[in-house]
Structures are given as structure tokens and as C-alpha cells.
Amino acid sequence: MNKRVTIRDILNTDEFRDFVVLAGDSALDKEVHSITIMDSPNPFPWSVGGEIVLSSGYIFKKHESEFEELIRKMSDAGIVALFIKLKRYFDYIPQNIIDLGNEIGFVIVSVPVEMSFVDVINPTLSKIINFQTEIIRKSEEILSDFTSLVMNEGDTLTIIKVISEILGEEICYYDMKLNEMYHCKSSCYKDRDFENININQLLVEKESYRVSMNNKIFGYIVFLGRKKGDIYRDEFNALAHANTALILDTQKKLSSMQIENRHKNEFVRDIITNNIRSKMEIEKRAQSFGWTFKETFRTLIVDIDNFKDEYTKMGNTDEKRDINNDLDDIRDNILSTAVRVVKSYFVDSVYVNLSDTAVFLIQNNREDKIDEILEEMSEEIRNTIGNKFDFTVSIGIGESQDDIINVYKSYKEAQMAIKIGRTIYNSNFSLHYKDLGVYRILYSIYQNEDVLSFCKSSIGKVLDYDGQYNTELFSSLQKIADCDWNLKIAAEELYIHYNTMKYRYKKIAEILDKDLNKTEVRTDISLALKIYKMSE
Q1: Fewer CB under 10 Å: which end of the chain, C or N?
Q2: Domain 443-535 CATH assignment equals 2.60.120.10
């Protein structure tokens, strides 16, 4: 596209072949918006920038001592050039003015004395108006092209190729809603491949245009061959039409995906809640989505920590409703991040989003390494989300099931891992059902009055002593039990001297009035400590 009308374009007009550039050669590519006549020494209040000033030279002759200052003021006001007649009031332009024009990039052009102002103004305005007319014509053509694209269901890549051809630029488009990158000369990158392209770095280094509506960002058009700078005025029409077409295309995709995802979600929800009549039903419904269930299965739950608490803080004002909408977007982005990580490890996994939770059905044929892989993946999910958002997530993992029809059992196990993990770790954890141990039993009884009474009788005196004397005996007791009653290891982990730990051990025994070396006493205390963790 012809980006703009420049001083050079004006000087290339046939009628101006006898014009001579006296100064400012380096500034000939400055944009021209209009041309006007200078008949006073103070034209600056009406200057809006981009003007060529046409002068007979009289004003400069009359105020010759201010000639240099006038040139500086004209440049500061955004005036791009002085077209001045010589041989009438000036035989030549003083050398200091020529030097100044070259220094500050201000163009000074000699106009033949016999040319009238009209002979200069009309061709200049014609060129500017013709350019603006071409912009309007091109805009209508672009609108027609994009309307046709949308009507004929042109895809995103086609839209990008069209805008690339219109602008004459190599561009790419990053779709934030679908996390996809499109390039005008290649196919789309997604999921793991997308990590090879640093979109944030591109946005810093390259010129870009934000595709948005109602302050919601859908993506960015990036000019790959252009460093950071201004987008040309005439490009905005094309980009505005591309903005509309890309948003419509994205909304169409999202609408289609929402319908399909609703059916997928219903199917996965039926599987994990055991709302299935037969294995054949699973196979038929899976086929409709192109899914094949052949391997062993287990359930993994990703739950956003304390997310519902944020909703309870909100009211019904417009501002708070906007915050609610932002929270919805954050939730969707967090769960989408979890999906991308899981899919990068288990491409055949399926999932359902349940409010602020994502439930994954993971099938694999690597059962010998599955625990190691799940641990690595869970850590990546938590680290990625924790670094990117102001929220953390907790992860519960159920046991493996040989048949998809029984995967609801794994779901219940993953749920229990989340619930028990919340009582022990509160947030930002990953926990396997198989690692719950005695907590599986304790979870069903820990709020029983007899159980709480047992807990108090076993360790309550140490808690009371800490409260009364501001000591740290209870935390020491917890660490000793965690270290399998090895005082040396417990001391090292608490960064205290071994003799200090021996003293605390003896003091705890005195407070409880029990022999802590007896196996049955240690068993009671260890059990009481687990119950305490769940009930505190």
C-alpha cells in the first residue's frame, strides 16, 4: 500500500519539475497533509502539522533578522517544508538558513518566480485529495473483501493472508482466545509447537495491532518486517475491517466449540458420575467425538484454590459485576493452562470443566512410569499457573482403572485426595489417593467426638503448655513423629542442636506423663497428630 503522501511525492509532480530543493534533503519523506500560504510572521497557532507553507518571501524579507527563528518555530509547529519564491524579495537564501534546514531536517524549496500560488496549490491539493480518495476506495474494497470472507466462512488463515496482501506486509496473528498462531505464509501453530514462538518478545520488538472489542483483547496482528513504531494512518481502515472479521471468526469458532464442548462435558460428566448404562453407550458416544478408549484410566482433578471465596466478596454493583467477569476470564485461562500442560503429556486425555475445577481422564500405556510422569506433570501445572496468575491450584489423583466404565471410582478417589489434602496442606499441593494411607480411614471419623477426645488426651497437654509458656514443643513433637521418632534427623530439619531436641523430647514426655520410647505410645501420638492436622 502507498503509505502516505510525502514531500518527495509532491516534488515529483510534473508541474513542479523546475522546483529546487535548497535544504533538508534528509526530510523529503515526511508526510504532507495540506498546503497553505504564509502571509504573517506568526502562522503557528493554526498549524496542525504536516503542512507545506508557500511564501513569496515578503514576510521573511520584512523580518529578515528573525528568519532563522521563524524557521525553527515553523519546524517546532510541525510544518514540514517552506516553498519560497526567489528573485523577487530574495536573490538567494542565506547560507545560515540552508545550514539550519539541513541540521533540523526542515525542507526549503525554491519555487520559480513566474508560478502563481494557484499553480502550486492546486496540483498539491489534487495529489493529497487523490490519495485520500484512493484510501476511501481501498477501504470500500477492503470492506467488501472482508464481508465476502465472513459471508463465505473464510477461515482465520485466509483473513490473515488477505490483510497481508492488502498491506503488503508479512504479518502473523496470535489468537489469544484459542491460543493459536497464524502466519500469512504458513499453517497454524498450536499447543506445544506454540512454545517455540515467544509472542511477548514479538510484541516488544515488532509493530503490532491489537484486535479487540469492548476492551476485551482477542489477539494481536504483528508486523514481522517492521520494528516498533507508528502504524500508518491509511492502514487503520484495513486493520479495522480485519479486526471485525477476526473477531467474528473467533466468535463463530467459540460458539461452535461451546456447543461441542457442552456435549463432551456432558459425556465426561456421565462417565465420572457413573451415569452410564453400558460399555456400548460409552463406545458410541466416544466415536462421535473421535475418541478411542483402549488403555487403562485414572482421574486427575485440578482445583483452583480459594476461587469461590473471591466471588463471595463481590456485590451487585456494575463495577463488581465487571470484576466478576474478569474472574470468569481468569478462571477460564487458568483451566486452559492446565489443559495445555496435561495435553502435552497425555494427548489422548479428555476432560470436563466443573466451575473452578478441571477433571481429566488420563489413559496411558506407560503404567510402569505413570507415577513419575504424573508427579512431573502436576509440578509443571502448579508452577506454570502459580507463576502466571495470582492463584494457585491443588491436584488430586485417583488410582488406575482397567475399564473406562469403572473410572468413576478413580474420580471419587481423586475427590477424596483433594478433600483430605485441603485439611492437611490447605492449598497448592498434589496428592495421590494411594499415598493417603491411614488418612483414608481417619477422614471418615476425624470429626467424631470420641476421636477428638482421644486426640486431646494424647497431645492436648503439649498444646496447652505452648499456649501458656509461649514455647515450641508441639511443633517439635510433630517434627519428631514425621522423622519416625529420630531425634537427630528432627533436630537437623528444625536447625536446632541435638541436645536442644533431646531436652524438648524429655520435656514433652514429662508434660504428657508418658514413656515416649514405648511403641504403643508413639502409635497413639502419631495417630493423634494426624487427626489434629485434619481438624485444625
Answers
A1: C
A2: no
